[in-house]
Amino acid sequence: MLTWLASEPQTYMFGEMRATVGIPKTSDILDHIYALREAEQKQAMDKIRKIEAEAMLKQQPQAGLIPLMEYLESRGPLVNHFTDSQQSTPVNHLISKFLSGKVFSPIVTREFRPPKPDPAGILHIASDWNLPDRGESLIMVGDSLDDMTAGYRAGAATVLLVNEVNAHLASHEHTDLCIKSLDDLIKILDEGFVGEIGQREELPDTKGQAEAALER
User: Fold this and answer.
1) What are 95-107's pLDDT values in tens digits?
2) Fewest CB atoms within 10 A around its CB: which of 54, 68, 143, 153?
3) CA atoms of 58 and 9, how far apart (whole Å)
4) Whole-angstrom Cα distance, residue 80 to residue 69?
């Protein structure tokens, strides 16, 4: 079972949001907004949603998304979309444009409180799916430290979708495995995730995996 990100990162949005609303880099965007007075919150969220609506039109699927989805459909496991997007519209746009006909439930966005790196969202997914071991049957696929930490705290296996910006996270204690493309997961799932990365007590060579992924 997987929690994952489906669209390519649009990190430029966060700089625009901070500049538009006046949020310092040291503060989480939503934490800052939720601390405002009610009227100011609404104004700030309207500005955030406008930026997201414009970015939504430029969304592109992550490399390997379609082959991975076809593989998962053939296997029949549950797949969930867990995203930092702050409203459901961008997520629905992505699904309708690139994953038409696919069903995702539940869809957890950052409007779910508390957001990553708290594991609450992942544990909510596990509860919704009636998993007896909470997050331990899940794989958290992400590209940020918040993603890896949320997965680690939930007891899930963690997979870093590595790129030149986040490669330093490969050696972080919360990262179990590194891939460059989502369809890299197919071989891993076929051969057995535990056998690929080992137990947490036997740390995998994530730095080497990141270097190998970036070379491909």
Assistant:
1) 888 888 777 788 8
2) 54
3) 11
4) 11
- What is residue 2's DSSP assignment? E
Query: Nearest CA to 31 among 110, 108, 146?
Result: 110
| Interatomic CA distance for residues 176 and 99, integer angstroms | 27
CA separation for the pair 202, 180 (Å, rounded): 22
pLDDT digits (tens, 9 = 90+) for 89-143: 777 778 888 888 777 788 887 778 888 899 999 999 999 989 988 899 899 999 9
pTM of the model: 0.76
- The helix-helix angle for 184-191 and 65-75 (nearest 10°) equals 30
Cβ atoms of 141 and 3 closer than 8 Å: yes
Query: Any residues with CB less than 8 A from the CB of 43 and at least 6 apart, and which?
Result: none
Listing DSSP states for 12-77 in one string gives: HHHHHHHHHHT--TTS-HHHHHHTS-HHHHHHHHHHHHHHHHHHHTT--BPTTHHHHHHHHHHH--
